[in-house]
Design brief:
The chain is an alpha+beta fold. Helices cover 43% and strands 27% of the residues. It has two helices and three strands, in the order ααβββ. It has helices spanning 10-49, 58-71, and strands at residues 82-87, 90-104, 107-119. A three-stranded antiparallel beta sheet has the order 1-2-3.
Amino acid sequence: MKRAQSGITLVGFIIVLGVAGVFIYMGMKVIPMYTEYYAVKQSLEGIAKEPGVVDETPARIKDMFFRRMNINYSENVKPADIKVVRKDAGYLITVDYEVRKPLIANLDVVGNFSTEKELRRGAGGN
């Protein structure tokens, strides 16, 4: 009695391995971009909880933000990417930046990230 062979061939296994490898490689490029984005959001949340932050100048608020970003080893957010504008009795901080990572040859992974946080009087730990 002849048994039918079941399973994956060597060529099929190599193809599956190649596809999985491409997705893993893409994940290695994309995941750090998103962890940095969440670090930006956490930095904004931390600034919002600072007591008396609405009494600071926009330059001082930017300095506070970049000090927090230095702790997180963030390098893609530049001073031109952050805007601090007066809104009502507080400030509106907007961080809008782009991250471009080379993928394969002339293909890049591009991430556009944007977040904002409103700083209001009494919103912190007062």
